[in-house]
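Structure request: Inactive serine protease 35, Xenotaenia resolanae.
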Amino acid sequence: MGPIPLYILLLVTVLTVVVAVTTEESRVDDQYSWPQWKVPLVRKRRTVPLSSPNFSAHPQQELSGTCGIECQRRLPSPSLNDLEQFLSYETVYENGTRTYTSISVHGLNEVTMWSKNTSSSSRHKRELYGTDTRFTIADKQYSTKYPFSTSVKISTGCSGVLVSPKHVLTAAHCIHDGKDYLGGVQKLRVGILKEKGRRGKGGKGRGGNEKGKRRKGGKGKEEALEKEENVGKGDSKGRGKGKKIRIRRSVDSGKPSFKWTRVKQTQIPKGWFKGVSNGLTADYDYAVLELKRAPKVNYMDIGVIPSIKKLPAGRIHFSGFDDDRPGNLVYRFCSVSEESKDLLYQYCDAKPGSSGSGVYIRLKEPGKKKWKRKIIGVFSGHQWVDVNGDGMQQDYNVAVRITPLKYAQICYWVHGDSSECQVA
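Returned structure:
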């Protein structure tokens, strides 16, 4: 057999390079794309009436005694029966009545049950890292446009995020203190920012649709803030130099006002209630509010991500209504310092009032070049966390992650059938 012709060797070399480059691009693309998960089914077993709540609890500025990431490492993994008990839920209605619904979980598997802890060993006490890194979004040109327009104010003093045309995701402690419902829940309302003197535009939309006029509004502002924040930054944790220029300014060219809508019903997982999930209570600090009328603004889909720290950027974003800037929407983004399968510790500066905000990230849709935001957690707030189970506490900013099971439960609350959301 004679020598292989040079043109064949060149062709093979070129093909090898093309395959290698394509494989690398595909790998990088996968890093930046939303993973697809087969999520379990949550089904109702039965619903029974309960006595009406006392509505005697008071809002909590910050939580304490939370069994956090370090504390939870020593706890046994919950069984299927435990999970079904934690995900069973109470519903409180606008007329003050209450029911309890027990659920069953189907299709649970190893993919759904993430590793018990994926956290790193680093821990950082919560503080304002140098200059306050929050941005006030006061201009109606931005605050009433996507993604900022998905943020809402809860009448009990918290924030929330629209996850369907008429459903709001927020923190459970904004509604219930673990023993009873807050006094304001009897007449619970949700405030949506609207331009003064005119009706808001935008229509109900479908959560993943980030097209049209929204690109000229909040999305551009969000990206501009992020770019300017990065100038001269010393590290990726939100503490580096380059903090001297802080975009707290915003042109108040017609500040928007709140349009308030009554809440029809509120649903909270039993895992949040005292004595039910014990050390795992913090994992269930979320609730869904169903509005009586759907506001004509876009909402944001929820999503599931196995690790945020392993993402190329590793950043989270959220907007809420911090108490120290009354009437204004406050946006921030930052890195995650530590994560477990249910909780996040992060560096975002925040004040009371921002609890319940939807924590989101941006990734590409699978097989597409289009980027999409999804809610991957709920900001629980500034908490005093039990670090070693010995009573020693440290303060952190904590967020509750959306896991496949929580995704299925929230989908069930929103649609009445979690089979409509079999792929996260």
